[in-house]
Amino acid sequence: MQKNTLNISVVIPLLNEADSLPELCAWIEKVMSKNRYTYEILLIDDGSSDNSWEVIQQLHAKNNQIEGIRFKRNFGKSAALNTGFQVCKGDVVITMDADLQDSPDEIPELYDMITKQGFDLVSGWKAKRYDPLSKTIPTKLFNAATRYLSGIKLNDFNCGLKAYHSKVVKNIDVYGEMHRYIPVIAKWNGFSKISEKVVEHRARKYGTTKFGLERFVNGFLDLLSISFVSRFKRKPMHFFGSLGSLSFFLGIVVTLWVLIEKQICIYNGTKVRNATDQPLFFLALVALVMGTQFFLAGFIGEMINVNSLKKDSDGLIIETTKE
Q: What is the pTM of this model?
């Protein structure tokens, strides 16, 4: 295996951020030069409709350590990050947003936490935020729910500023809108040395936010999805088989109860109802059918290749700045 030759890869997904890119890249270059890091900056243009790609090409012409990747259309932040993770070459990977709300001055400390303190992943924590209450309150609820379900003690799961050891980004897949749960994905893939660092949150200087309130509803649904997939994707029969066993057992118990009750009535000479005249009979029938269906779902799940979840990014890219 060829050894990485770069200290840091900075992966930046972006959508219509032409105004901020020159200032952001100049700031990153200044930090890298001051600390004598070898680096690359990967700008992932997620289908921008402004002149972001032209700006990226200009930046690349001035500094070939800045590389650009352009998607055919907007595929989302998760696809952009996953593509950046696949092509990056740094020993440490830093992700940040392109809107200048993340400070590149945090990079040296994040780099040291990975290389010297041995963490697999360090997540930024914007303890003081310049956001309205309509955004900060749902964010706190989202973080509390994620902490409870994942067992990871982070205060800010969705902070765009994160640092990763290269082995983490090369062994996880980020798809759908799962970028919010990268620490959860990393943990359930065996990377448990996860920490956080308080980072500066800056007020947005250019453009407008790309996310609305619907992201909190989608985020909750994604949390349920990733909790299920991460725990049972390799053992679906454990989940569906358990439900099927319980449902089948209840169906058998209710069926036996209906039959025993009928025999008791016959023995005592009391009025006897046909089993099909009792609601319990149909409940038992439904439970037996559902139990069978759960078992079948488990068997089908076992036969599905887990690798089908992987996304091939080749179909997303329309062009790059690489020769």
A: 0.73
